[in-house]
Design a protein that fits this description.
This protein is an alpha+beta fold. Helix content is 36%, strand content 19%.
């Protein structure tokens, strides 16, 4: 796989690093957020970017940014939500768009579509991109499902929120109970999907127009004999003290043939374009009986320092700071001042 090159990136573009910190979080979560943010700031500063952090602790994003001129700054959008407002990642982007800021990552429409697993599934089907069979339920009565094992997911969550080992079900009784749990506890429709107990890959894609697949990472579940543990749960994503986290860390490089890598690249690039992702995204994939199935599309995925996308970038020859700088420069091409040609002319000394 060819290395990713930074090329003619400008390392001096001024950056507003926008991140959210909800005061209702535990002290441990707050400390982890601050540490991850500081790590990204230091990496960007190391490659040359002037960085100013903007910590959003309420839903008043316009107030937090009112003193900044969109023509003088580029926003690194590391904000997952408006604090205290569920399912609001797209609203962050909407506000930035309304205020005239250019920012890294997906636009508000893509974020809204990808937040809703029903819309993603329909889109994948229309584009003939393989995805496990699925159905949405708004009641646990008269369930017409016959494909087991199955997995039950909340329709509007990401980062595996609401996913536990009990999400994998093998009988109609278990299915009905889990659907009812999603309806009652998470207050949203339940998406039921055939559970593919097979190899799982997290695949990063970078670019706009000229797209590149980063080296995939494999999530290895072989340490767990029980099928109920063969999935990324919320615990395995966030609880670093848990066995689920420690024994399912991404592994690179993966054991795939050149033909398999080519097919995988074609799939993830098709999905990236179909969902109008921008700058970067991560695709979650399972390989069963020689067929790659797309589970989920993740625009603006986590890029804290030991994440699968970051590890793939490192394998391609990019440091953490260079990856961040590349995303900044991709976004800068949409900026009225910082687009590469204009900024180059502005910063060249007069002759």
């Amino acid at each position: 796989m060819k290395p990713v090159h930074v090329g003619n990136c400008h390392n001096d573009l001024p950056v507003l690093l926008l991140y959210n910190l909800d005061p209702s979080w535990s002290q441990e979560d707050i400390q982890e957020c601050c540490a991850a943010t500081q790590g990204l700031i230091e990496a960007l500063v190391e490659v040359g970017h002037p960085v100013q952090a903007v910590c959003l602790q309420s839903a008043e994003l316009e107030t937090a940014l009112k003193d900044f001129n969109p023509e003088e700054h580029l926003v690194f959008n590391w904000c997952e939500a408006l604090p205290g407002v569920p399912h609001s990642e797209h609203r962050v982007a909407q506000t930035l768009e309304r205020m005239g800021f250019i920012f890294t990552g997906a636009g508000s429409r893509t974020l809204a579509v990808c937040q809703d697993k029903r819309r993603i599934k329909r889109l994948l089907q229309r584009r003939q991109i393989p995805t496990p069979v699925w159905q949405v339920y708004t009641t646990a009565r008269n369930i017409d499902w016959a494909c087991f094992p199955a997995i039950v997911k909340p329709a509007f969550e990401h980062c595996s929120y609401g996913i536990t080992r009990e999400s994998v079900v093998g009988t109609m009784a278990e299915l009905g109970q889990r659907i009812q749990y999603v309806l009652d506890e998470l207050r949203q429709p339940a998406l039921v999907e055939a559970f593919l107990d097979s190899r799982e890959f997290h695949v990063g894609v970078i670019g706009n127009g000229n797209l590149r697949m980063l080296p995939p990472a494999e999530i290895d579940y072989s340490s767990f004999p029980d099928i109920h543990d063969h999935l990324c749960t919320y615990e395995s994503n966030v609880d670093k003290t848990s066995l689920a986290y420690q024994l399912t860390l991404p592994k690179l490089p993966v054991d795939l043939t050149d033909s398999e890598l080519s097919r995988l690249e074609a799939m993830v690039i098709a999905a990236y374009r179909a969902t109008h992702c921008r700058d970067y995204a991560r695709m979650d994939i399972r390989l069963q009986d020689g067929v790659f199935y797309l589970l989920d599309v993740n625009p603006n995925p986590d890029i804290s320092s030991r994440n699968s996308l970051v590890m793939g970038a490192e394998l391609s020859g990019l440091t953490y700071g260079e990856l961040g700088s590349l995303l900044i420069n991709l976004a800068a091409q949409r900026h009225p001042v910082f687009s590469l040609d204009k900024y180059t002319k502005m910063t060249q000394p007069e002759r």
